[in-house]
Structure formats: C-alpha cells, structure tokens
Specification:
Blueprint (H helix, E strand, L loop, with lengths): L1 E5 L4 E5 L3 E2 H12 L5 E6 L2 E3 L4 E2 L3 E7 L3 H22 L4 E8 L2 E7 L8 H16 L4 E7 H10 L3 H8 L5 E7 L2 E3 L16 E5 L2 E5 L16 H17 L4 H9 L3 H27 L19 H14 L9
Parallel strand pairs: 1-7
Antiparallel strand pairs: 1-2, 3-6, 4-5, 4-7, 8-9, 9-14, 10-11, 11-12, 13-14
Helix pairs in contact: 2-3, 4-5, 5-7, 8-9
Length: 329
C-alpha cells in the first residue's frame, strides 16, 4: 500500500499502487471542502492531471483554477476544445492561439479557402465547443516514441507540430486525443470536457478572444479590459514573425539548428534599436514644444525585465538627439 499525504489538510491515507489522483481526491473530498472545483494536482510539487496514477509514496496537493498550475491546466484544456471545434466545422483550417490579451487569449483563425472569419463562424464554433463539453468527451493521453508522434501529426498535415517534435530532442513524447482530434501539449489536461464550465468566445479584431475564468473567482469570467496598444504591439510582432519565417517554436529551433541564431539575434537587436531611436525622437520633439514640454520620462516594468538596460540605451539615443539625460534607478 502507498502512503499519500494530502498537503491541503496534512492528512495521510493508504492507497493501492496505481491509484489515480482522481480516486485519491474522492477519498479526501469530504475532509478538503475545496471552495472551487478541483482541476489538477501537484505530485511532489510537479503539476499532474487527475488521471495520473501513483506508484510510490507521494505528497499531493489538489488545485482549483485559481492557482497558477491549475489555471494553466484549465486554459490548456479549453484551448484543445476550441481546436477540436474548429477542426470539426472547418477541416483543414489553422488555429493559432497566440497570446494573452484583454484577460483572455487572442486566437488567429485561418480557413482553408482563406475566406474571412465572420461573427456567424465564431458563433458556430462556440456552439460546437458547448456540444463537446455537454458530451463530456474525455481527454486521452498517449505516450509514444517521438518518431511515432511525428508520424501522427504529419498524417494530419500539422507541420508546425512536426517541426516542434523533431527538434525536441526527446525519445518519447506525449500527445493527447479528444475524440478523433490529436494535439500536443507540454502540460497535463483535465480528465474530460465537462470540467470546463466557465468560458466564452467572442470576435476580437481580425480573430477571436477566448475568455477564461477569473484568477480569484473561477466561477465567473475574467473581466475584459480593452488593450489597443498591446494588440498593436502583438500585431507588429506577428508581421515580423512572418518576415523572418518564424511562426512557431519549431521554426525557431530549425533556424538555430541551421546556424541562423546569430542572424535572428542581430535582426531582433536592430529592430529594438530602431524602436528606441523612434522613442528618443518623440521625446526630443515633446521636449522642445512650447506648451507643457516633457522633462521627466518614467520607465516601468517587472523585476529583471531590462529597465536599466533600456534606460541606458535610451540615454545614448537622447544624447544623439542633443539632449542631456540624467538617469535615476
């Protein structure tokens, strides 16, 4: 028998070898009284899906969608449901879940015939997602050799996943199935689609916004915040990805393997320097205007994000504009 300690309540119980985390949770459920539905767990501090089976004594902590790992499991699973819905309705289409914005996830969707995405399309996709959730389709994890996983995705025409797997350096890889749809994820998923009760899909610029639960109260959607400047920044980044032919991590890996890493870094640095020049010129223009001239420039960002380095690079460009900046950090 295994000794499993639940870190949520510091109680240890015995279980047979091969017991799933879901079975462990059901045994502890009455004592835990979790405020929100459990979606995942950590096993010795490593995130795992609830279908994960235990074969050694372990510390287990159950997670709802508030905690970082639990929230990511929820979002990851929701993305798979969205992906399956698009493949069911638009075979051969391409879905790119690109970045977080407006407290949701921006999704770029390309039909096979390059027709524009309409609000009716988004409504149909949303309806199909709800059908999948109502059917409580299970997420099935398959462990295979990377070579076999590459073959699975190559047969389906998913060149981006093929490149990612080919450059992973792993002998074995996991991929997931939802019905007859295959996808590749680096982390665990919820056991089945019925766990995904809080979500919305809305039109957003040229694509879709996948809205997800609030970090603090996963029973409601995170409040949408308009972020036009952030969207413009991401749109420009996407344009440069196309120019550099880097649409996904697999493309980056392939470029590095071919010896183009230095070129990628140089182009990235050149683009950043160009942006800093534009910022310096705008500061110079505002410094010399007659009404309300600029005298202080504030730089914000999280810890270790490069604020001091950026300040030094901006100071050089301001000097080139004929200004004498004084930096304080």
């Amino acid at each position: 028998m295994l000794q499993i300690r639940c870190k949520n309540n510091n109680i240890t119980k015995s279980f047979p070898e091969g017991t799933s985390l879901l079975d462990v949770y059901q045994e502890f459920a009455d004592d835990l009284k979790m405020p929100y539905p459990v979606v995942a767990a950590t096993v010795n501090n490593t995130a795992q899906g609830l279908k994960f089976r235990l074969f050694q004594n372990r510390d287990v902590e159950f997670l709802d969608a508030r905690e970082g790992p639990g929230h990511r499991v929820y979002v990851r699973s929701l993305c798979f449901v969205l992906y399956k819905a698009t493949q069911d309705l638009f075979p051969g289409s391409k879905l790119f879940i690109e970045h977080t914005i407006s407290r949701g996830y921006y999704c770029n969707f390309k039909k096979r015939n390059n027709e524009p995405l309409t609000e009716a399309d988004i409504e149909h996709i949303s309806e199909r997602m709800q059908e999948i959730i109502n059917l409580d389709m299970p997420f099935r994890r398959n462990e295979a050799t990377t070579e076999e996983a590459v073959r699975v995705f190559a047969e389906r025409g998913f060149s981006d996943k093929v490149k990612l797997l080919e450059t992973s350096g792993q002998i074995y890889s996991d991929y997931y199935m939802l019905g007859d749809t295959a996808d590749f994820y680096y982390g665990p998923l919820v056991p089945s689609a019925s766990y995904l009760t809080v979500w919305a899909l809305e039109p957003y610029h040229d694509g879709m916004l996948l809205r997800v639960p609030d970090w603090y109260d996963p029973t409601r959607l995170a409040e949408k915040v308009d972020m036009p400047k952030t969207y413009e920044m991401f749109a420009e980044k996407t344009r440069w990805d196309i120019i550099m032919r880097l649409s996904n991590a697999g493309d980056v890996n392939k470029a590095i393997i071919k010896g183009h890493a230095s070129e990628l870094i140089q182009v990235s640095e050149a683009l950043q320097e160009k942006k800093i020049v534009q910022i310096a010129e705008e500061i110079d223009r505002r410094f010399h205007r007659e009404s309300d001239p600029v005298r202080i420039v504030l730089i914000t960002g999280p810890s270790s994000s490069g604020k001091t380095t950026f300040c030094k690079r901006l100071s050089v460009q301001l000097l080139a504009c004929g200004l004498r900046p004084y930096s304080v950090s």
